[in-house]
Amino acid sequence: MISCKNVYKQFNDRPVLSGIDLDIPAGSVYGLLGPSGAGKTTLIRIITGQLDFDEGSVRVMDRDVKSLTGEDRKQFGIMMDRFGIYERLSCEDNLKIFADIYGIPHRRIAETLELVGLEDAMKKPAANLSKGMRARLCLARVFMHSPSILFLDEPTSGLDPQTMKQIHRIIRDKKKSGCTIFLTTHNMEEAYALCDTVALLNEGVIVDSGSPQEICRKYNHQKRISMHLSSGEDLEMEHGSASAERICELLRTGRVETIHSSEPTLETVFLELTGRKLEEDA
Amino acid sequence: MRNVIIIFKKQLKDTLKNKTVLIQFLLFPVMTLIMENTIRIDGMPELFFTKMFAFMYIGMAPLTATAAIISEEKEKNTLRVLTMANVRPRQYLLGIGAYVWFICMTGAGLMATGFHGMEIAVFLTVMGIGFTLSILAGACIGIYAKNQMVANSVFIPVMMVLSFAPMVALFNERIGKAARYLYTQQLRTVLDRMSFAGMKTEGICILSANALIVTLLFFTLFKRKGLE
Predict the structure, then answer these.
(1) What are the two backbone dihedrals, phi and then psi, of residue B150, each rounded to the nearest 5 degrees?
(2) What pLDDT, in 10s, does the model give residues A74-109?
(3) Whole-angstrom Cα distance, residue A54 to residue A46?
(4) I need a surface site. Which of A21, B179, B186, B227 has the fewest CB within 10 A?
(5) What is the β-pairing status of strands A63-64 and A55-60?
(6) pLDDT of residue A281
(7) pTM metric for this prediction
(8) Is B85 in CB contact (< 8 Å) with chain A?
(9) Helix then strand then coil, % of chain A, to nearest 5
(10) Three-state secondary-structure class, residue A241
(11) What would the DSSP string read from start to end of A187-237?
């Protein structure tokens, strides 16, 4: 559905993207992880045809991105990091503008608002909405016209856990309906929970990519198991056959309160690969 | 064309809830009606307030409204959202321009209630030309400015010169000499006579030069900066 080959982009002689390669199959959720300033938004703008690139090739829906027409771009739903909502207008009027642009019947507005849990705020001016509600309104605008590709640039940045969960549910529903989703985030839990594939982007370079589980397993160098026992004691053992007997015994006698394997999180993988934290600027 | 109408409708709805812009559109027509119907001074020229407020309206409302609307949309990121939804920049500008022109002409229609017959046609033609030039100037500021604060700092002095210079020119000859190079001053002289017939070649040249300058400036800025 989306592919980039060796994409380079500079701003005033400063490289922002250096040799980006990615391939996103239809119907999957692709997560681009990286700290602020890594080049995530620039890549979205390139893939959606808003920004030219210096070298390489970008293909979307099996066509060169530069040859996409306005009608082709109507297949995109784009949510950038700033909401871009008409604050004086009601939620309904905000969506009406885009329903008219996309040629969607107005009855879809109420359906879409219901889907994001904003049916009671339909007539409310957007200025009176909380940050979480604005994010949901923005998301409603993005998928109201049933796009085949969703670009979500940090869709849950700065939102409370409850709203974050609601947005994750909406994203999962969209995936189920066959939508391809390109997501940027610096929240590793979000990436782990939602993405089929993640790419770790640092200073314009993809340092590794794969499924979140795969990546975490790949960088599991320690291979240890840690336990907290009911006696209050903490134990750490090798992840191997030598420890199996002891762990088994502890479990059998009911002395284990918690047990964890030591595979790294995406955050620690990113730290290992780049020496930077994903949320250092957040 | 559909997108132009959508932008027009969107702006109409937004303005009804935007008191700052709404006041700009209503201020001079309402003041004209009040002043013309309440103040009578012996020897005062006929429809003095209508003519005075007319060129102030030309220099103020369309310029500030256009610049404020575009710069606000840039600042709030709504303009980018519209362009991502495949609204072309020229469709957006046409929609905003048509909307501001239409609202201002409605205001001018209210101001014209004191005129009769051909005078109404002359008055509305003058206002229509003035609004078009002011909208282009406002669009230049909107395109140039990154946000509302920059737009305000540019359009306030421009608006003051365009709208007040012709009035000050009534009382100060030196300012009058400089003000005659402004389209608002040239249009004021037409309004004084209520006829295009007496317009001198110099006046036509100044008006055309003003139109050429704002048009060229608009296209140059639009080509260079787009709506980013």
Answers:
(1) -65, -45
(2) 888 888 867 789 999 999 999 999 999 988 999 899
(3) 10
(4) A21
(5) antiparallel
(6) 46
(7) 0.80
(8) yes
(9) 40, 30, 35
(10) helix
(11) -HHHHHHH-SEEEEEETTEEEEEE-HHHHHHHT--S-EEEEEETTS-EEEE
Structural domains counted in chain B: 1
CA Rg, chain B, in Å? 18
Q: What is the pLDDT of residue A280?
A: 52
Taking CB atoms and an 8 Å cutoff, what residues of chain A touch B9? 100
Cβ atoms < 10 Å from Cβ of B39? 10
Residues of A in contact with B96 (CB under 8 A): none
| Rounded distance between C-alpha atoms, residue B51 and residue B54, angstroms | 5
Closest chain B residue to A75 measured between Cα atoms? Answer: B85
Is B9 an 8 Å CB contact of chain A? Answer: yes
B213: containing domain: 2-225
In DSSP notation, A126-193 reads GGGS-HHHHHHHHHHHHHTT--SEEEEESTTTT--HHHHHHHHHHHHHHHHTT-EEEEEES-HHHHHH
Name the residue type at position A270.
F
| Burial class of residue B75 in the structure, from the number of CB atoms within 10 Å of its CB (0-12 exposed, 13-18 middle, 19+ buried) | middle
Average pLDDT of the residues of chain A:
85
Chain B residues with CB under 8 Å of A78 CB are: 84
Q: How many CB atoms lie within 10 A of CB A2?
A: 22
Contact criterion met (CB below 8 Å) for B123 and B46: no
Phi and psi dihedrals of A21, rounded to 5?
-125, 125
Token representation of residue A84: 């871009």
